[in-house]
Specification:
Length: 214
């Protein structure tokens, strides 16, 4: 089990309904954007890491009925909210899994795409590195990683810094700027596109990387 998780568990224990209600109001609509980016690749199988309630995975599963979507999270509380929403939505091509990104409960070479939204910054540095290795293990040759995560909007660095201090652990800063893209590269992925945060209208980065089997 990931070090420090029990402290973090509290942070997400009651967050499921809040995320479900609030995700659609995040400027730039990161969850819709991720679901669309992934759907455009027409994958057969997709894994979402740190999926929380599976909000983005549900959008994708709804958009792409021929794609099998698996969403994994470590928080039983987030997953409980997600299971209720999934049942109500009547989506059949998606499953929620409880698990740790540092030890993925999936076979080698299973997925075409591993996606995440606001997941990588949550992970302690050593866990993040193990999770990238696990991502490479479960990706099919030539598979893709598409990640949306925190990044300081150029005109609002001070406010963003305050937000980080108040709400995130210090390791969240590892992913800012080229931090996440550099970590992917260091583990052998090829980063094909990196769009930094642009403004408050899109206050997040988008990283698209490929496994080098292509
Ligand atoms: C900021 S939330 C984002 C949730 C979701 N992606 C969304 O945008 O609604 C980060 C999520 O990472 C999960 N998480 C943290 N550490 C994890 C780990 N080691 N393995 C799997 N999930 C983890 C938390 O439980 C939480 O649901």
């Amino acid at each position: 089990m990931t070090r420090g998780w029990s402290r973090n568990r509290l942070k997400f224990a009651l967050a499921g309904p809040l995320f479900e209600a609030g995700n659609r109001f995040i400027p730039g609509h990161p969850h819709d954007r991720l679901a669309q980016l992934v759907a455009d690749q027409h994958p057969q199988r997709v894994l979402e890491l740190c999926g929380g309630t599976g909000y983005a995975a549900r959008l994708l599963a709804d958009k792409s009925p021929t794609t099998q979507v698996d969403s994994l999270d470590i928080s039983p509380e987030m997953l409980a909210t997600g299971r209720t929403r999934l049942r109500r939505a009547g989506i059949g091509n998606m499953a929620l899994h409880e698990g740790d990104v540092a030890a993925l409960p999936f076979d080698d070479d299973t997925f075409d795409i591993v996606m995440s939204v606001f997941g990588w910054h949550e992970l302690p540095t050593d866990t993040r590195h193990r999770a990238i290795d696990e991502t490479l293990r479960v990706l099919r040759p030539g598979g893709q990683v598409i990640a949306i995560d925190l990044d300081p909007p150029p005109a609002a660095r001070t406010v963003f810094d305050l937000y980080l201090r108040l709400t995130e652990r210090p390791h969240a800063r590892d992913v800012l700027g080229t931090g996440l893209a550099d970590a992917f590269t260091a583990h052998g992925l090829t980063v094909t596109s990196h769009q930094p945060a642009r403004s408050w209208a899109r206050p997040f980065q988008i990283v698209h990387a490929h496994e080098r089997g292509i």
